[in-house]
Write a structure and sequence with these properties.
seven-stranded mixed β-sheet, Rossmann fold, two-stranded antiparallel ribbon
Length: about 260
């Protein structure tokens, strides 16, 4: 991505302080930062998922590292860590706390769509609470490019068809639109079909039905039609091909609700 990428300024302005405040109150319950909204999920949720599905030995790249929030979780698994974030403010904060650690190789400023690493570099990749802010078909292709065949890949996002009566999700989407927050909703089942067609193995699809369910680890498996957020666990196959677009700026639920107003 160009240095003129308009997303950079958004992430560098006040978003670092905002997201840090949301993570500081993470866990089950309601937010005080955004009155009445569900809290974001805490780190223990991800620790549980990482332990359940596991990493390959070796290296991991985190895409969207923020201030290094998840670094301890990767280091607990004995991994060598590289990390990127599109935000210079986030990268500076992560470097201040973590650069120089014996198992952290680099913390770099980069978009998800143009990662500064060679083909087949990493044994694992994680993109947590970031994929929905990327141009997803391009970012996913980069995830595959920089990982080796057999790599374990974790990523989360928002599904483009959640429940009509999930008012918290509708309010959050409307609020993101007002702020010009770069937020994209995934046609999740289409994306997974594209991955499988390239020969990649989907080890798990965890679907969180409503906004706030991630913080409670309240998920269903299988392929439901409607849900709000997802966690995909993937084992990379041999192919690394381009994807057609499988995400959109508005969810189908939001568009239907808007048309009925």
């Amino acid at each position: 991505m160009s240095e003129e990428d308009p997303r950079k300024q958004y992430w560098n302005d006040s978003y670092y302080r905002y997201w840090k405040s949301r993570v500081d109150e993470a866990g089950v319950g309601s937010s005080k930062v955004i009155e009445g909204d569900a809290n974001t999920e805490g780190d223990e949720i991800y620790r549980e998922f990482f332990e359940r599905f596991g990493f390959n030995p070796g290296s991991v790249l985190e895409v969207g590292c923020a201030w290094g929030r998840m670094f301890p979780l990767y280091l607990e698994h004995g991994l060598r860590l590289s990390a990127v974030d599109i935000s210079a403010a986030m990268v500076d904060a992560a470097r201040e706390s973590w650069l120089g650690h014996e198992r952290i190789d680099s913390i770099s400023e980069s978009s998800a769509e143009s990662l500064p690493f060679g083909d087949g570099t990493f044994d694992n990749l994680a993109c947590i609470a970031t994929f929905d802010a990327t141009f997803q078909n391009r970012a996913l292709r980069e995830f595959l490019r920089v990982t080796r065949p057999g790599a374990r890949i974790f990523f989360t996002g928002k599904h483009d068809h959640y429940h009509d009566d999930d008012t918290a999700a509708l309010d959050a989407e409307a609020g993101a639109r007002r702020k010009n927050h770069p937020n994209y909703f995934t046609d999740t089942l289409y994306m997974l079909a594209l991955l499988k067609a390239q020969g990649h193995r989907v080890d798990a699809l965890l679907c969180f039905p409503r906004r706030g369910d991630f913080a409670k680890a309240d998920f269903v498996t299988g392929s439901p039609e409607r849900f709000y957020e997802y966690l995909v666990v993937l084992t990379r196959g041999e192919a690394c091909e381009f994807f057609p677009e499988f995400s959109r700026a508005h969810s189908r639920t939001f568009l239907a609700a808007s048309s009925n107003e």
